[in-house]
Amino acid sequence: MAISAADLRGVFTPIATPFNGDESLALCELRRNLARWNETPLAGYVILGSNGESCMLDEDEKLRVLRAARKEIPGNKLMIAGIGEESTRHTITRTKQAAEIGADAALIVNPSYYKGMMSSLILTNYYFAIADASPIPITLYNMPLATGIDMSREVVLECSRHPNIIGMKDTSGNMPKMGEIISDVGENFAVLAGSMSFLLPALAIGAVGGILALGNIAPAECVELYELAMAGRLDQARALHRRLLPVNQAITARWGIGGLKAALEMRGWYGGPPRSPLTPLGDAQRAELATIIRDAGL
Predict the structure, then answer these.
(1) 62 noted as active-site residue
(2) Pick from 209, 214, 182, 180: which is nearest to 197 by CA?
(3) Full-model pTM
(4) I need a surface site. Which of 14, 105, 264, 276 has the fewest CB within 10 A?
């Protein structure tokens, strides 16, 4: 049964892809991690997102990760497949493969190699062609830090009119633009915050949830923050937001994937190494990260 924008409410996490010491896939550890995440109140997962090091995996590895994840994710949690190919043709192929494996939706980042040519018309045509061909709903992924392109309000609004495009993950943190988009799109298009760092203000202006890296290591706390905000308990939400911010900063902007995987280990999940050329944290960094996590009460 196809999902809709209403199903995107809540907190999702873009899960880390675990590797062995030789950088091969550690699918047994992926299954163990998911079994533990399944016990949390997360609404679902993004598989092969930015935090899943999707750009580091070959085609066969991506399919193996999707298949392994699908077997472990229960029906009450959504499985969203991260798709990030440059050509329309390749993206459609990948989206159909994800659908065949059983993904509930696809999260599709815009092409960016020829960023100077990515006009509003080209981007809109790209997403419309994929949505027309996709057996599963599509969500936009606006990630200007990685792509160098901040999708315009006009592109998002035009895409929101397609019946098979049901939402967007926005990592830009541009609250005025996000507020304008939320005001203009209908109920059939969901806007999700792309970082815990601005989840609270995003919810305040009408976002319906978030896709949060921090959910990997603090799923219950991220969901608590969401629920406090939605219940209007803003004093408690602000206090929790301030407490979690240093951890979020550490595993995203400061130390990235290496920090996230070290934090997973400290919190009882499997972390393992990132794939080269990314590097694991050194001893001093790990000690500092452990202090940040402890100070946050995690």
Answers:
(1) no
(2) 214
(3) 0.97
(4) 276
The active-site residue out of 62, 71, 96, 169 is 169
pLDDT digits (tens, 9 = 90+) for 199-217: 999 999 999 999 999 999 9
69-100: buried (b, 16+ CB within 10 Å) or exposed (e) per residue? bbebbeeebbbbbbbbbeebeebbebbbbbbe
The amino acid that residue 82 corresponds to is: G
